[in-house]
């Protein structure tokens, strides 16, 4: 059986607050697995324990109880972190470096061999569409560009698992679409992606599986298809639907013991309409400013 | 392990780069340079052959004063900059050990202090040399003209090797202060708290020699032990205050062994405080 990218077993994390050490349980007996080469969505309202769980996965926090493994390795080991790329929420980077210097710095920190580094840095900068801005200082980047240089530093050492924490926070729909495309591309390249986002449409669009946390507990987990399926109901999409046909269809359905619940006018999603109207153009997709 | 040491160097390099681009560093360097330059006003007073000692005291004092401020403030600022801006989160999510991160920060600030001390010492040395040449010429001429009883005295000549050695000792003292500040930062929550506590510890280290000189005179065994412990916990910064003895020929010169011992003493405290900081930072939640 294949080793999962992430295996969390009975994870509990308590924080001690104040001088008296009052205990706050951020995550309570959490268990789930993320399969290799899957895109996994971790959802939940603010304060649900998502960030704590992610920090445990990244080895930044020690669990109070339970354990966390990355490809079979303890998540707090340096060896495990070699396999992980991480994009924090609202990333802040060294403003005095250029985009290329920044990505190169993280590549060197991750021990990417010097001979490969230049090409690797150029490749990931191209992948996130920042080639023309690569030699500008990060301090001059727009929010959208910062959100793009973030994934570049996360994947420059070619990790097997990429953790994206709110990669679309404060990003316009074009930027969001670009990040969705990047996630799909990473999956195509054999990577596993853990996506934490409040942009539910994006999660639905790119994730294979998801888990929903609430108040530190796992309240739902499974494949997106399974979790979103409404049992016993189907949608029909009909072109040029004449009003006269409705009665005939209802009669046919009634003969088979089924019932037409309601008819909606087909609508395009708002983000899709936005993208159709304003982009992504070549300039936007390659170099958002 | 080799990659961990390489990471320390890379983190140190970036820390240094970040520090030298900060306005605070540039401001302090300019202020210290201005103070050393302002030593030329001493020429308005007639100090005689002693003028070089005044210039030297003024310059070395500026280096010590501004260097101490810079060691504490730069360390606190560069550490909390990483925490508050959450670049530490990005960094520690990489295959970077916590000790590498902290050691890199300490080394980066140590490099900054090396540049600070080196720059100001070179400037002070150049100024002393220039003025010394002038004074030698003036007093030699006065001696020939019999308007001054002796030639320029050797005891007032600057020992530039001693000046360089003093710079090394001061740099080491600043590095001890950097390690102390890093230890405080490793468990404190704010930049301000770190700066204030570190300044208090700096003052204790400056005055530590009083405890050190007196602990043997205390009659109570408990208090004597306490005073002894305190005198060991805090390094004695007076051991590094030998500038005048090194820069000018002294009646009793500083023994070479004492200088080597002071270097070892400083290095030991740097290692101890940095190790304690690493231990404290290891359990810190980022």
Structure report:
The complex is a heterodimer of chains A (289) and B (286). Chain A is an alpha/beta fold. In chain A, 36% of the residues lie in helices and 22% in strands. Chain A has a six-stranded mixed beta sheet, sandwiched between helices. Chain A has a four-stranded antiparallel beta sheet with strand order 2-1-4-5. Chain A starts with 5 loop residues before the first strand and ends with a helix. Chain B has one domain. Helix content of chain B is 76%, strand content 0%. In chain B, α3 packs across α7 and α5 packs antiparallel against α10. The chains are: A alpha/beta (289), B mainly alpha (286). Chains A and B meet through α2 and α3 of A and α1 and α4 of B.
Name its key features:
heterodimer; A: 289 residues; Rossmann fold; six-stranded mixed beta sheet; four-stranded antiparallel beta sheet; 10 strands; B: 286 residues; mainly alpha; 76% helix
In short:
Chain A is of the alpha/beta class and 289 residues long. Chain A has eleven helices and ten strands. In chain A, the strands form two sheets. In chain A, strands 6-7-8-3-9-10 form a six-stranded mixed beta sheet, sandwiched between helices. A four-stranded antiparallel beta sheet of chain A has the order 2-1-4-5.
Q: SSE order of chain B in H/E notation?
A: HHHHHHHHHH
Task: Tally the helices of chain A.
Answer: 11
CATH topology (level 3) name of chain A: Rossmann fold
Shape of chain A: globular
Which sheet architecture does the biggest sheet of chain B show?
A: none
**Unreliable stretches of chain A:** 281-289
Q: Which structural class best describes the helix and strand composition of chain A?
A: alpha/beta
Q: Most extensive interface: pair and counts?
A: A-B, 29 and 24 residues
Rounded average pLDDT of chain B: 88
| Residue share in helix of chain B | over 70%
Oligomeric state, counting identical vs distinct chains: heterodimer
Per DSSP E runs of 2 or more residues, the count of β-strands of chain A stands at 10
By CATH, the architecture of chain A is named 3-Layer(aba) Sandwich
């Amino acid at each position: 059986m294949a080793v999962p990218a992430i295996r969390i077993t009975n994870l509990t994390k308590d924080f001690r607050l104040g001088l008296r050490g009052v205990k706050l349980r951020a995550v309570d007996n959490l268990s789930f697995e993320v399969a290799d080469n899957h895109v996994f969505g971790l959802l939940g309202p603010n304060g649900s324990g998502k960030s704590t769980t992610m920090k445990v996965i990244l080895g930044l926090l020690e669990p109070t109880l339970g354990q966390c493994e990355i490809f079979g390795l303890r998540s707090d080991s340096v060896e495990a972190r070699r396999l992980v790329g991480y994009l924090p929420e609202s990333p802040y980077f060294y403003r005095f470096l250029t985009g290329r210097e920044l990505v190169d710095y993280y590549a060197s920190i991750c021990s990417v061999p010097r001979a490969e580094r230049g090409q690797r840095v150029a490749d990931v900068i191209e992948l996130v569409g920042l080639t023309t801005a690569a030699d500008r200082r990060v301090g001059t980047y727009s929010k959208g560009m910062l959100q793009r240089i973030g994934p570049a530093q996360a994947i420059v050492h070619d990790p097997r698992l990429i953790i994206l924490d709110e990669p679309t926070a404060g990003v316009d729909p074009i930027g969001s679409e670009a990040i969705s495309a990047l996630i799909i591309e990473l999956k195509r390249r054999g990577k596993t992606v853990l996506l934490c986002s409040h942009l539910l449409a994006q999660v639905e669009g790119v994730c294979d599986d998801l888990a929903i946390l609430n108040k530190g507990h796992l309240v739902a987990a499974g494949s997106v298809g399974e979790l979103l399926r409404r049992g016993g109901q189907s949608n029909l999409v009909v072109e040029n639907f004449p009003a006269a046909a409705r009665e005939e269809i209802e009669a046919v359905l009634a003969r088979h013991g089924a019932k037409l619940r309601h008819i909606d006018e087909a609508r395009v999603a708002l983000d899709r309409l936005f993208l159709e109207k304003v982009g992504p153009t070549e300039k936007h997709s390659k170099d958002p400013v | 392990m080799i990659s961990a040491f390489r990471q320390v160097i890379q983190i140190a390099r970036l820390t240094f780069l970040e520090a030298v681009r900060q306005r605070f560093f540039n401001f302090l360097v300019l202020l210290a340079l201005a103070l050393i330059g302002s030593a030329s006003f001493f020429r308005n007073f007639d100090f005689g052959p002693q003028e070089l000692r005044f210039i030297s005291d003024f310059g070395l004092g500026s280096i010590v004063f501004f260097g101490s401020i810079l060691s504490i403030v730069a360390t606190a600022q560069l550490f909390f900059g990483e925490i508050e801006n959450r670049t530490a989160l990005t960094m520690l999510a990489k295959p970077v050990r916590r000790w590498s991160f902290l050691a890199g920060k300490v080394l980066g600030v140590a490099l900054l202090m090396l540049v600070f001390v080196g720059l100001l010492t070179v400037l002070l040395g150049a100024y002393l040399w220039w003025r010394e040449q002038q004074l030698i010429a003036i007093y030699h001429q006065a001696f020939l003209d019999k308007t001054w009883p002796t030639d320029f005295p050797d005891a007032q000549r600057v020992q530039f090797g001693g000046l360089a050695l003093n710079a090394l000792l001061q740099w080491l003292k600043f590095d001890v202060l950097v390690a102390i500040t890093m230890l405080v930062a490793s468990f404190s929550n704010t930049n301000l708290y770190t700066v204030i506590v570190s300044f208090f510890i700096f003052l204790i280290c400056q005055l530590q020699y009083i405890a050190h000189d007196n602990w043997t005179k205390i009659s109570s065994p408990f208090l004597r032990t306490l005073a002894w412990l305190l005198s060991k916990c805090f390094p004695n910064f007076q051991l590094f205050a030998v500038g005048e003895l090194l820069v000018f020929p002294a009646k009793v010169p500083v023994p070479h062994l004492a200088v080597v011992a002071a270097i070892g003493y400083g290095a030991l405290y740097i290692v101890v405080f940095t190790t304690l900081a690493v231990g404290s930072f290891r359990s810190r939640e980022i």
